[in-house]
Amino acid sequence: MPxxxxxxxxxxxxxxxxxxxxxxxxxxxxxxxxxxxxGIYRGxxxxxxxxxxxxxxxxxxxxxxxxxxxxxxARSERFKTKEGxxxxxxxxxxFKLNALVVIGGNGTFTGASVFDKEFDFPIIGLxxxxxxxxxxxxxxxxxxxxxxxxxxxxxxxxDTATSHERLFFIEVMGRDAGFIALRTGIAAGAEFIxxxxxxxxxxxxxxxxxxxxxxxxxxxxxxxxxxxxxxxxYKIAEKVKEQLPEMDTRVTVLxxxxxxxxxxxxxxxxxxxxxxxxxxALLEGHxxxxxxxxxxxxxxxxxxxxxxxxxxxxHQMLEMSRILAL
Length: 326
Known about the structure:
Layout (H helix, E strand, L loop, with lengths): L5 E6 L7 H14 L3 E5 L2 H7 L2 E4 L26 H13 L4 E6 L1 H14 L3 E5 L15 H22 L2 E6 L6 H10 L3 E3 L7 H13 L5 E6 L7 H11 L5 E5 L11 H19 L5 E6 L2 E6 H6 L6 H10 L2
Parallel strand pairs: 1-2, 1-4, 4-5, 5-10, 6-8, 6-9, 7-8
Antiparallel strand pairs: 2-3, 10-11
């Protein structure tokens, strides 16, 4: 195995607040350790096309507070093919890179795992996704900011809901996991939280909502994860309206607003910590692993395990949310 002297860094898949802080940490830690660091633009797609530039300390100045990713991001169908990965490896050899740091989620780590096995090439991953659905870390980069963004929006919607005595269904991101919905719902004092990890029974929901209104509640918020089994917020609101036509209902889909914006202090610190640790991990011989933080300690989880083992939401917190909404 060649001594690590040149490393590349890329961001892939959906962007998340804090990616820039992670990039900054990797670049400056790499330079401190005497490494040459190269930025790869537009993820694996850019790697295949050779969109690579050397990075200096000044390259990452004034970015820790910025959302998105200065390296841009993209999904790559070509990298899913053996031919595409071969082209990526040829580019790596052309630039004489010895290792990669990839920031992303499930798809990013799946690609990295396959590439490592095919070409025996060291790759370390950083968990950059707002969904918080990766095993091996208490929190992913961007998760905290996404919650704060959703809660701020829900608080403003609550003002309108109260003024007009309306029931709002607010859809948040979470196609396969309800972490954002759960935390947002508790923080916003939602009447109900609907997540993919539990079954939603519309009849029960309508009955409980009607019971709430009989207690003279002046507003209502139902937080819906986009991947809930009963459908998105629009479909669920429509089904509830059929059973409770007297209720004045509205729907708000927060969408990609949850991905944007300046990262929270927590996400900046987390991204900086994990980015710094990733360089040390490579120099220590780690490969094919995601760097995470569990109980405030740095841990290393193989890509396959980080992807395969789904974290479950805290069902006690879900039950607590219903009690506090009474």
